Amino acid sequence: MPVELHDVEKLLGLKREQLPKHIAIIMDGNGRWAVNRGQPRIEGHRQGVKTVKKIVYECVSLGIDCLTLYSFSMENWKRPREEVEFLMHLCVEYLSQELPEMMDKNVRLRHLGRKDRLPDYVQKSLDETMRATENNTGMILALALNYSARAEITDALSEIVRKIQSGKLTSDRISEGLIGEHLYTAGMPDPDLLIRTAGERRVSNFLLWQLSYAEFYVDEVTWPEFEIENLHNAIRDFAHRERKFGGLIKDKTGTRL
User: Catalytic residue numbers?
Assistant: First the structure.
């Protein structure tokens, strides 16, 4: 069924062309949220999934083309085994529960990262959900799961080298565009807006290639506290920035600034 889009002019005071096409989010502070309330860290992750659900479908209703969520980094394997196992099961639970809504909202799932290290049951759930949603034409929801930007670039370059060695490519074809075609995000626009919660100001090995010209927005609240209005504030902030992409802008008199 068609997705009913918000009237963004009434809701946000913006024109639709002012919205970012691709939002990436580093969802930080789940553990901190729980510890501050005297609860186990896993309760913060459980609460964080509730936030994911709200934000995903609000982005759908706003007409955002792509939403990428930093769900689990390759470095996160260093966390306690019980927490990692809980996160893996939570991912499968989310995909299973949300598949009907993804279909209803025309959402297409993509996975970013090295899938082979994930438990078999997680790989199976990802594959089934991606297969079920592959013909959907609405927002792309990309889950960066067992993800590392350095690993992504390494994998892209390794694949290009293999193609050169096999004669499928010649070295004179190497370009930024060719590298982009071999990244996990191939076919997706680069993020316009990166949101990070919990007041952190690090990129944390996330989409290093793709974030070259993204606007950064840091929210002090932890991810479980991040509400739809926080998302709206980030989008409004983005819409009122002057994006020069290394060039200059002109003021009303035509003077370059």
Answer: 28, 76
* Dist CA 211 CA 208 (whole Å): 6
Rg over alpha carbons for the chain, rounded to the nearest Å, is 19
Q: Report CA 257 to chain centroid distance, whole Å.
A: 32
Judge contact between 222 and 47, C-beta under 8 A.
no
Residue 155, phi then psi, degrees to nearest 5: -65, -40
Provide the 3-class DSSP secondary structure of residue 193: strand
What's the whole-model pTM score? Answer: 0.93
* Close Cβ partners of 138 (under 8 Å, ≥ 6 residues apart): 3, 60, 105, 106, 107, 108
The secondary element (H helix, E strand) that includes residue 195 is strand 193-196
Tokens for 6?
């918000």
- Taking only the tens place, the pLDDT of each residue in 192-235 is 999 999 999 999 999 999 999 999 999 999 999 999 999 999 99
Q: Walk me through the domains of the chain, giving residue ranges and CATH numbers.
A: 17-149+189-238 (3.40.1180.10)
List the beta bridge partners of residue 26. 70, 196
CA-nearest of 22, 46, 25, 21 to 144 is 25
Backbone angles phi, psi at 66, to 5 degrees: -140, 140
